[in-house]
Amino acid sequence: MPDARTIAASPEAAPTAAPAASVPFGPDRNGIVIDIDAVDLERNGSTLLDGVSATVRAGEHWTLLGPNGAGKSTLLSIVGAHVHPTRGTATMLNHRMGRVDVFELRRHIGHVDPRHPVRGRMTMLDVVLTGITGTVLMKPRWEPTDEELERAHAQLSVLHVDGRADADWSVLSQGERGRTLIARALMPDPELLLLDEPATGLDVAAREQLIASIDAVHKARPDLSSVLVTHHLEELPPSTTHAMLIGHGRIMATGPVDDVLTTERVSRAFEFPIEIGRNGSRWTATAAR
Ligand SMILES: Nc1ncnc2c1ncn2[C@@H]1O[C@H](COP(=O)(O)OP(=O)(O)OP(=O)(O)O)[C@@H](O)[C@H]1O
Questions:
Q1: Whose CA is nearest to atom 26 of ligand 1?
Q2: Potential cystine with 126: which of 17, 32, 48, 122 (Cβ 3.0-4.6 Å)?
Q3: What is the C-alpha to C-alpha distance for residues 38 and 46, in angstroms, rounded to an integer?
Q4: Which domain of life is it from (predicted)?
Q5: Which of 39, 74, 78 to mutate to test the pocket of ligand 1 (most atoms within 8 A of CB)?
Q6: Residues with a CB atom less than 6 Å from ligand 1
């Protein structure tokens, strides 16, 4: 059995940390949905996050950018209430980690994880419906209501894949899977949507459709806030409002997207000369000559 010191130092989110909350899950009275304050995360003797602070308000769409190993997914796992900070505080939807049942908190956060493990025979619609139960598999003896079925189809329709609702997961393309996972994450009607490299492995057409779908979701749900992790500026939806650059577990720049995504700041974060450009509502990044 682990001793008390091991438990206290464990970064894994304890499932039953505190009594059920009476405060509703949503923005606080200042409209803040994510409040990360002076967060450090240590694992196996390494510092993965070092003094990270971030504030996200309702309706903002953030991107978290940085080189491989910078700490992006680690930060997203704290915001998704999967990992506790070693030091500092993480408050999402007006509930601080350590004082809230993380399972309850997670039900209000849509998390699109490209490594989502679908098992057994499931259709696209089945996978979307598991967003209601918060499970990987269809819950035994659980049946969706007509309203839930209608909502699942409506989500797939916004993402332009409703025609494939009955297709088996095993035959879906990467792009169809990506959009299925977004629809799944939206099923509980979350206040916060986290997207971890949603365009990984997509061809250019599927990537463009995905970006258009994310924009459509932002338009359909103006109160929704989102955080999208990527390495590629070309993958940023035009609806992106803010950006954070992260390097070696530290924040390098944060603020409105046009202030942060500059040639100088991006080059510093990636430790490589990169020229940032705009192509209409999109961003480009090329090696500076
Ligand atoms: N359990 C762990 N123990 C020690 N180091 C870890 C652990 N988990 C992650 N790391 C390290 O933490 C650093 C940050 O990892 P993270 O996955 O957050 O980076 P990232 O910015 O998302 O990277 P990528 O762009 O490559 O996905 C990496 O160097 C990784 O090897």
A1: 68
A2: 122
A3: 17
A4: Bacteria
A5: 74
A6: 43-44, 46, 48, 66, 68-74, 231
Backbone angles phi, psi at 201, to 5 degrees: 80, 5
Bridge partners of residue 253, in order along the sequence: 245
Q: What is the ipTM for the molecules in this complex?
A: 0.95
Does domain 4-108+190-287 fall into CATH 3.50.50.60?
no
Residue type, 48: L
Question: Residue 235 in contact with residue 285, Cβ under 8 Å?
Answer: no
The alpha carbons of the chain give a radius of gyration, in whole angstroms, of 19
Distance (Å) from CA 249 to ligand 1 centroid: 9
| Domain locations along the chain | 4-108+190-287, 111-189
> Which pairing describes strands 61-65 and 225-230: parallel, antiparallel, or unpaired?
parallel
- Taking the CA of residue 76 as reference, the ligand 1 atom at the shortest distance is 18
- What's the CA-to-centroid distance between 280 and ligand 1, angstroms? 33
Per-residue model confidence as pLDDT tens digits over 41-100: 999 999 999 999 999 999 999 999 999 999 999 999 999 999 999 999 999 999 999 999
